Write the structure tokens for this entry.
Amino acid sequence: MRPAIDISYGLHGRVKDYAEANDLSLDEAYIEVLETGLETLETQDQQ
């Protein structure tokens, strides 16, 4: 189940722009952005 969270309008716009620039659906763009961000955080924690 997806969490109900508030995302700022500006942040949503950036993800929407990313989706359009990379020919992704909005869902695909959010998934990609979140996975990339989590991988980056996990890598930083291991250093």
In short: Residues 10 and 47 are 31 Å apart (CA to CA).
